[in-house]
Design a protein that fits this description.
4 helices
């Protein structure tokens, strides 16, 4: 019940914010774009490249962990359903062991290659920003 109330409140606030922004945009064209540009400049000053890399690394580690947890839970339920055994059957134990080994290898690969991927991503974003600035 509380989740449903929270969803309704969130959707209502989000839609009212969009309506408010659209009304401001109708009255004073350009003011919203100016505010967005000011926020971007503030973010550039506060958010360094190192912060960006740490944030992305934590996000990817969190994502990979949740992916493997979801995979383990789903397969565990399916194995217990198909083999009609408890939660610690030999088949499930073998699966969870192999899934954990796969998780460790994936985690290690992402952690080692994260810096390279981040710098490539940053270069791509910088190129996109230059292209966007050249369009105007």
């Amino acid at each position: 019940f509380f989740k449903a109330v929270w969803v309704v409140i969130s959707v209502t606030l989000y839609s009212s914010a969009i309506i408010f922004i659209l009304r401001i945009k109708e009255k004073q064209p350009g003011i919203v774009e100016q505010a967005i540009e000011e926020e971007r400049q503030k973010a550039k000053e506060l958010y360094s490249e190192r912060d960006f890399i740490i944030n992305r690394r934590v996000t990817l580690i969190y994502g990979v962990t949740l992916l493997f947890l979801l995979f383990a839970i789903l397969v565990s339920e399916l194995l217990s359903f198909f083999f009609d055994e408890g939660l610690l059957s030999p088949v499930q134990l073998a699966f969870h062991t192999s899934a954990f080994i796969g998780y460790v290898f994936t985690f290690r690969y992402i952690y080692k290659n994260q810096d390279y991927l981040e710098y490539k991503g940053r270069d791509f974003i910088k190129k996109q920003i230059k292209e966007d600035e050249n369009m105007f």
